[in-house]
Amino acid sequence: MFYLLVDEEISLKLGTVRDAEALFTIIDHARGELRTFLPWVDEMTSVEDTANYLQQSLTGFAQGNVLTAIIYCHGMMCGVAGYNQLDQKHRTAQIGYWLIPEFQGRGIATKGAAALTTEAFNSENMYRVEIRAAVENVNSLAVPERLGFVKEGTLRGVEHVHGTFLDHVVYSTLASEWRS
């Protein structure tokens, strides 16, 4: 089981099938805003879809490949953060996150990403942590910038979302940089 207390207000808890109904509810509530940069939103059309996603995530977690954690702020479910990819061979982790609009702009994603970065280096023995976001996703790009990640460059046309190819900016930090 994964549980990470970020601070007195924010916690991350491993998403399980029991969370499917509540998670689907917040996704459905914020569907219009979330779908701009998250291609999977249109595929999440029911509690069953959400439960299937969470079950697949649990399988990936058991294999050490991914982590899907529910973000709670003051006990309220407000989004998801985790490792979209954990590569044990190359000791790299890729962090992803999203919040429903009511919880954006409060530093929650930044604090969650910082905690996940520390966790990746300390508990997962990673060497490199990466965050990618669409060039137009200004809010998500601000997170690695605030955390002091190095902007490495742009991946052109790397994600197909609603008929459009999006470019992603890649940021990273290394264990030695994070600890200093």
Verbal overview:
- This protein has 180 residues and is α+β, with helices and mostly antiparallel strands.
- It has a single domain, classed as Aminopeptidase (3-Layer(aba) Sandwich), CATH 3.40.630.
- It is 33% helix and 36% strand.
- It has 6 helices and 8 strands.
- It has helices spanning 20-29, 31-34, 47-62, 108-122, 138-146, 175-179; strands at 3-5, 10-14, 67-73, 76-87, 92-99, 128-134, 150-161, 164-174.
- An 8-stranded mixed beta sheet has the order 1-2-3-4-5-6-8-7, with helices on both faces.
- Helix 1 (20-29) packs across helix 3.
- The longest helix has 16 residues, at 47-62.
- The mean pLDDT is 97.
- It comes from Salsuginibacillus halophilus.
- Residues 10-176 form the N-acetyltransferase domain.
- InterPro entries: Acyl_CoA_acyltransferase, GNAT_dom, Ribosomal_N-acetyltransferase.
- Keywords: Transferase.
